[in-house]
Amino acid sequence: MADAPRLCKPHLDLVKFKHSLPNLTESLKRRRKIKIVAIGSSSTAGEGDLIPYPLRLEVLLRGAFHHRMIDVLNRGIGGQEAPSELSRFEPDVFAEAPSLVIWQVGTNAVFRNKEFSFDDVALAIAKGLDWLAGLPADVVLMDLQYTTAVVGTDELLGLSKDMVARISAAAEDAGVNVFRRFALMQNWVEKDGIPLPDLVREGDTDHLHMSEWATNCVTTALFQAIRLAMEPHGLT
What is the pLDDT of residue 1? Predict the structure, then answer.
């Protein structure tokens, strides 16, 4: 007999947004075509044959909001971090006129910490958020994944917590939302008893990228956080 599928717990108490999403909500009310831009590194772009979160999110949103053409544009490039992603904002974000921007940051700063200055990454995040403030779009920062490559030693765990705190502080200063992916996945391990290796993509020698189950469940939690943030505007 096959094992029962593992239950996905989105833990909305951890990942719910501080701010509502008025621009996305208004677009869903008044437009037929809506764009969301997902910019980031490999956990946005996708790894191997695993379907990345932007496409999964698009499917969920289209299913929830019928008669709307919702496109989640995947603007992820593996290996990049906030400083290099800034150079892509004009063609990959601004030119698309999105109603929502999801910016995934911080993971490569920890994974390749000898190559990145945390201060430079934090400054780039702050600068990017300042640029995004000029758009009629809602913004969500997505922080790190909780996988062996970024939490597997005490040193890495300390670096990850430092970067998560910097991302949270940047979001607070800019008045934008954070999708707390790190806390969500950490909770799966520490509270729900899911082994850390199960959150890592099978065959990933770097032990960095999320598994099929983790990717799917992270997307489900993000989708539910988005819907919950639209409730104050009468749209769920």
Answer: 35
